[in-house]
């Protein structure tokens, strides 16, 4: 009898193209196999001889520093044996010295990098590139991130470009953004963040804990995470937040240096977090809210202080209304909550306030915000306030050398407007306000608000997360007042708009319309002010004020013009580095009735466009030219112009220094594109100068074989 010839593995084929196609992971630019949990993938094992009945063959998957069987971090799978921790393996076919195995991971398996080792008898075989990346699986019905709509999965998981909405409530701007979750090193950067999060293996199974950890790690505040926030207006020691056009450069740089990248503001944080969540396989979208409240003491009230000229005072205004704020929604079943809160969950990586001792926010069920269930984790009070707070305006007057405060108006319907995200499969804005709130003034809205107020402690100071520690039985005396909109005897109403396009270098021509609607002769004192402010509500320059007294009779209106000359604001505009808006505040007082009303409106500057010239279709690996053309139609010179362009799967991020572009001059730049991927690909271009911080555009090209 011959001695047994021992069984050895001579090779392993990860059947990458077949597996990644089935797992929708063929986009990842990485050597290793990337698969999604809860779904079978196949590997072909080559052996030194045929498999016999007594042979022992097993596949070992190990995750983490110190894999152990009893901790579930070392999985030893034998064909046709019962499953191990929800993982299964079966022999598909064997013939000659080859065997084809099918491996199905558990639909709630820990997400991350697994080392594969094949064991035959006592021999161990460690394949080259034997690290397998396991992701969440929105295609798998048993995964808590399951999404049953194909078009939505294509948008929220697979689309690597999109728009982030900025500007102001009345002039919303679609900022094109490259998420680039499939680009080189991006998946590795996400895996590095997962390791850095120190989440336990159990926590890595749950998209709720993973998304909370990622909301903390995308900002650098506690943990030297990806991005350092900076709203100072001085970005000399890094990249201005205005200059980014996508997440790829940021994540690649972070992965290379392991140090926070400078600098981000809210849309950059949201863009990067969106990339990270899509990359890990959790459906995700960027959400912009216009007039978002940052309520510092969580009493659902923002106090705004004005001087006697109607100019907003930064020094007293601690609460702020951001012209827009961008966060993310991620899609999952919340198995940790009572029924009814599955679906979209808000997470926010902009470092605003600490939650459980770290700058992190969410996941907070969007349905909990709508229903007023603000006791549910995580951070639902904070998110509720962002979209539902009320604003109270005060005028500060010096009386005998002391500041006295006079209330000049309350707005209850101004916060949390036009909540926006990119539509599924289309390049347009979708308004999702109804997912976050019931219609203003509806019966459901009142009910939801009363419910929310019953959980928000009147003192308003308390932890932001976990279930509310004490839901007090509220006696009448401590029941918080739900503010009401200012109602006037005269039916006083204010409107603010621009009468000409707001082009830098031109006069800013605006108008305040004062209306009354009840019978009588009314004398109205009107104060109007115009300021430049950052999108966070911080005033940067006072441009001018008006003061008029007008007479109105009964149901009538009058338009008061307000004009700011170019030299009153151009110097300030050029010196400001950031998202700058024009803020107009109007205060009206009716002499006869003492009615007071305050209104403020923010407006965005208008810019000339960039045009992109290129063919509509191109062939894979065939070069084609792409030209960027910009004509300065403003009557000011744009100084220190830079053009930034990027096309995922076409060409790498490129910057052209353009110097100064005089009025009427045309700038033209060209790149040669080499498409390396099929399908619709987008090119993004952005022009930055001292005077204008962000003209951007994008254009699609279809790449065919």
From TrEMBL:
It holds the Pfam family Transglut_C. One of its GO terms (molecular function) is protein-glutamine gamma-glutamyltransferase activity. Residues 258-351 form the Transglutaminase-like domain. PROSITE patterns: TRANSGLUTAMINASES. Signal peptide: none annotated. SUPFAM superfamilies: Cysteine proteinases, E set domains, Transglutaminase, two C-terminal domains. Binds 1 Ca(2+) ion per subunit. Its EC number is 2.3.2.13. InterPro entries: Ig-like_fold (IPR013783), Ig_E-set (IPR014756), Papain-like_cys_pep_sf (IPR038765), Transglutaminase (IPR050779), Transglutaminase-like (IPR002931), Transglutaminase-like_sf (IPR036985), Transglutaminase_animal (IPR023608), Transglutaminase_AS (IPR013808). The active site is at 266, 325, 348. Its cofactor is Ca(2+). Ca(2+) binds at residues 388, 390, 440, 445. Keywords: Acyltransferase, Calcium, Metal-binding, Transferase. Belongs to the transglutaminase superfamily. Transglutaminase family. This is protein-glutamine gamma-glutamyltransferase.
């Amino acid at each position: 009898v011959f001695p047994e010839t021992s069984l050895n593995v001579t090779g392993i084929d990860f059947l990458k193209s077949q597996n990644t196609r089935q797992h929708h992971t063929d986009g990842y630019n990485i050597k290793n196999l990337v698969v999604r949990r809860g779904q079978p993938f196949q590997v072909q094992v080559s052996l030194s001889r045929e498999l016999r009945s007594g042979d022992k063959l097993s596949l070992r998957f190990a995750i983490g520093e110190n894999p152990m069987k009893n901790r579930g971090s070392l999985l030893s799978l034998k064909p046709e044996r019962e499953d191990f921790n929800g993982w299964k393996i079966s022999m598909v076919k064997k013939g000659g010295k080859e065997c084809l195995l099918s491996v199905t991971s558990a639909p709630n398996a820990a997400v991350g990098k697994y080392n594969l080792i094949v064991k035959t008898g006592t021999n161990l075989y460690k394949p080259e590139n034997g690290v397998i990346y396991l992701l969440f699986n929105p295609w798998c019905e048993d995964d808590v991130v399951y999404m049953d709509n194909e078009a939505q999965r294509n948008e929220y998981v697979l689309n690597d470009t999109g728009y982030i909405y900025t500007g102001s409530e009345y002039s919303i701007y679609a900022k094109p953004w490259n998420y680039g979750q499939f680009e080189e090193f991006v998946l590795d950067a996400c895996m590095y963040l997962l390791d850095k999060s120190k989440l336990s293996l159990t926590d890595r199974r749950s998209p709720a804990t993973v998304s909370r950890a990622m909301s903390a790690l995308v900002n650098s505040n506690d943990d030297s995470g990806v991005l350092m926030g900076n709203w100072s207006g001085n970005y000399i020691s890094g990249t201005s937040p205005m200059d980014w056009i996508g997440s790829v450069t940021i994540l690649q740089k972070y992965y290379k240096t392991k140090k926070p990248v400078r600098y981000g503001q809210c849309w950059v944080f949201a863009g990067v977090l969106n990339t990270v969540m899509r990359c890990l396989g959790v459906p995700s979208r960027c959400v912009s809210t216009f007039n978002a409240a940052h309520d510092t003491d969580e009493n659902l009230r923002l106090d705004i202080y004005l001087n006697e000229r109607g100019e907003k005072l930064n020094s007293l205004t601690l609460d702020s209304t951001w012209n827009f704020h961008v966060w993310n929604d991620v899609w999952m079943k919340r198995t940790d909550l009572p029924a009814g809160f599955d679906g979209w969950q808000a997470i926010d990586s902009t470092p605003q306030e600490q939650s459980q001792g770290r700058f992190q926010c969410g996941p907070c069920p969007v349905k909990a915000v709508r229903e007023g269930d603000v006791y549910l984790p995580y951070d639902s009070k904070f998110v509720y306030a962002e979209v539902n707070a009320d604003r109270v305006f005060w005028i500060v007057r010096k009386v005998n050398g002391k500041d006295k405060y006079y209330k000049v108006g309350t707005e209850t319907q101004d916060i949390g407007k036009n909540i926006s995200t990119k539509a599924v499969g289309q390049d347009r804005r979708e308004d999702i306000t109804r997912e976050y709130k019931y219609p203003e003034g509806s019966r459901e809205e009142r009910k939801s608000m009363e419910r929310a107020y019953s959980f928000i402690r009147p003192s308003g100071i308390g932890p932001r997360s976990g279930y509310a520690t004490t839901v007090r039985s509220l006696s009448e005396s401590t029941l918080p007042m739900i503010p009401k909109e200012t109602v006037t005897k005269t039916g006083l109403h204010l409107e603010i708009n621009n009468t000409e396009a707001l082009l830098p270098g031109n006069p800013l021509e605006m108008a305040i319309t004062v209306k009354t609607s009840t019978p009588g002769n009314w004398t109205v004192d009107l104060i109007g002010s115009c300021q430049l402010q950052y999108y966070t509500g911080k005033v940067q320059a006072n441009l001018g004020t008006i003061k008029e007294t007008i007479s109105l009779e009964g149901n009538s209106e009058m338009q008061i013009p307000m004009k700011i000359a170019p030299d009153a604001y151009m110097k300030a505009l050029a010196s400001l580095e950031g998202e700058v808006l024009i803020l107009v505040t109007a205060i009206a007082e009716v002499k006869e009735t003492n009615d007071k009303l305050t209104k403020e409106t923010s407006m965005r500057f208008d810019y000339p466009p960039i045009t992109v010239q290129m063919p509509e279709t191109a062939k894979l690996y065939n070069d084609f030219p792409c030209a960027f053309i910009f004509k300065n139609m403003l009557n000011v010179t744009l100084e220190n112009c830079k053009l930034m362009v990027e096309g995922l799967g076409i060409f790498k991020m490129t910057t052209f220094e353009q110097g100064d572009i005089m009025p009427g001059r045309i700038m033209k730049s060209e790149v040669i594109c080499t498409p390396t991927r099929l399908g619709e690909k987008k090119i993004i271009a952005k022009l930055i100068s001292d005077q204008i911080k962000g003209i951007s555009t994008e254009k699609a090209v279809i790449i065919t074989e």
